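Today's session is about reading a structure prediction critically. Students often jump straight to the picture, but the first step is always the sequence itself: look for stretches that repeat, for charged clusters, for runs of hydrophobic residues. Only then move on to the predicted structure, which in these notes is written as discrete structure tokens rather than atom positions. Here is the chain we will use throughout the hour.
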Amino acid sequence: MPNGEIRIDLNSTTGPQGTQGATGATGATGNTGATGSQGAQGTQGIQGIQGATGTTGATGSQGAQGTQGVQGIQGEQGEQGEQGEQGTAGTNGSSSTVFPYKAKTGTTTGDPGSGYFIWNNATQVNATQLNISHLAQGSLDIDVVLALIKTDDSIIIQDEGVSNNYQRWTVSSSPTIQSGYIQVPVTLDDSGGTGTTGFANNHNMSLFIFSTGTQGPQGIQGIQGATGSAGATGAAGATGATGAAGSQGIQGIQGATGATGSQGIQGIQGATGATGAAGAAGSIITAARGYRSAGATGLTGLVQIGYNTHDYIDVAGYHSTSTNNARWKAPAAGRYRLTAQVSMSSVSGEGAIVGIDKNDSASFIWQQTLAVVPAGALAGVIVAQVTTGWLNLAVNDYLAVSIYCDDASWDLGSDSVWAVFERSA
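Below is the predicted structure for this chain, in token form.
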């Protein structure tokens, strides 16, 4: 056909479109021919289905738009795995401390006096408040310990020599600190022996303070269950071949929606969270108190003090009154504290050193230099109180109290020479 000539067949209609062959590689672009006059528009042909897209071939005349292939719908997402159970919380722990006091029954209000405590009711088991001096027997100042007492702590008042004579109280509200003593609101839990009938005035007592610890940490949360896998995507319909050149065909109808993909499998259940660590228990009295039943005279140099009597049963096995009775031993690893009082008399003027050593080491881990009272009714007397504070001890580590004095005439007192060994819960 000569360039610029256009043939128009007004009687022909567009036939069905044949399948499109594979597209060849792009050829070189030819020279642009002269533009011919526009012929009349042919009738609109039927839109063929869309074939797969091939590589770009030589530019030809545009055929009618093929209909779009049917697209498969995406499968539903699998259900999310169940969340792991939350770990349980640890139980509450506690710690205990014991101090020497005396009972006072002549008053029910005010300052009980150094080394004493009182009840606010003449019938002791009906009391609702304990007034406790900040100085225990031997002028041991425990003001800092008393200030830590809080609601729900426990206080046990026990006959120093008979553990079956006792009263057990619970702190019912916040204590009130007064000058020289503390007022502790309490509720009686139970009692036994003379603790029920009432302790006598000036009777030697042991006062235990059990402090409730903080709650154990929360168990870790179980891991998230894995997300179910997505259903497979339906295959795309093949692209229809390009129709022959002609006027725009009518729009093909939308392909039907593909079938629903199968449901993904359920994720595995998260593992159960680990149980939170339990707080240390404090229901057992974790302390022992011993003292000397007789004094000693004519000692000089460095001397370890042995304790041959217990005020109450040593339930934890911290001390022996017959074998190595100067040693306070840790039967298990933990935090321990040794508090001691030493009384000396007939010291002419040299003074003394009181110290605490660990495992018979050559040096003290705590020591105090003391001077002799020079004159008056207490001339030549020394009373010392020492404490290690809380220490980390391994199994079978032990502590001992020693005194050093160059004056061979001094005497070691009895009864007022005591030591308390405690373990922190």
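Discussion point for the tutorial: The first strand starts at residue 94 and ends at 103.
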